[in-house]
């Protein structure tokens, strides 16, 4: 089993080249080449609440998938010492189970399933208060 990496926000941005307002992870624990857990604290100050929807704010599904993809990328980016920028190749079997509202902590889990010839595949899930809110299989290309 790999050594666990505990990453705060500064540690995360050393691996992920995405910045505010699109960075969707506040902290993570990573077992490089295997799996990761992380979280995003969803304050009412997130920019997407302004338009989705002002009278009934819910986190857009695309942002939930972005959070999952960012955490998933840590499972393989932490194995390398380069400025690799992964390119998302697709999502499959995406499911949204519950609405995500302001004030929630979005807990994330990702598992790397395969990494062959630059095509990385995995699965990820998001939870609020222990209940699943989103899940997906994903593919990423790294060069």
Put the structure in a nutshell.
The chain is α+β, with helices and mostly antiparallel strands. Helix content is 17%, strand content 41%. The longest helix has 17 residues, at 61-77.
If you compute it from the alpha carbons, what radius of gyration comes out, rounded to the nearest whole angstrom?
A: 15 Å
Number of H/I helices: 2
Overall pLDDT, averaged?
94
Helix content: 10-25%
Order of helices and strands: EHEEHEEEE
Q: What distance separates the N and C termini? A: 25 Å
Shape: globular
Low-confidence stretches: none
User: What's the multimeric state?
Assistant: single chain
Topology:
Elements lengths: L4 E3 L1 H7 L11 E5 L3 E7 L19 H17 L9 E10 L8 E12 L2 E10 L2 E11 L2
Antiparallel strand pairs: 1-2, 2-3, 3-5, 4-7, 5-6, 6-7
Polypeptide structure, described:
The protein is an alpha+beta fold and 143 residues long. Strands 1-2-3-5-6-7-4 form a seven-stranded antiparallel β-sheet. The model has no long low-confidence stretch (mean pLDDT 94).
Keywords:
17% helix; seven-stranded antiparallel beta sheet; alpha+beta; globular; 7 strands; 2 helices; 143 residues
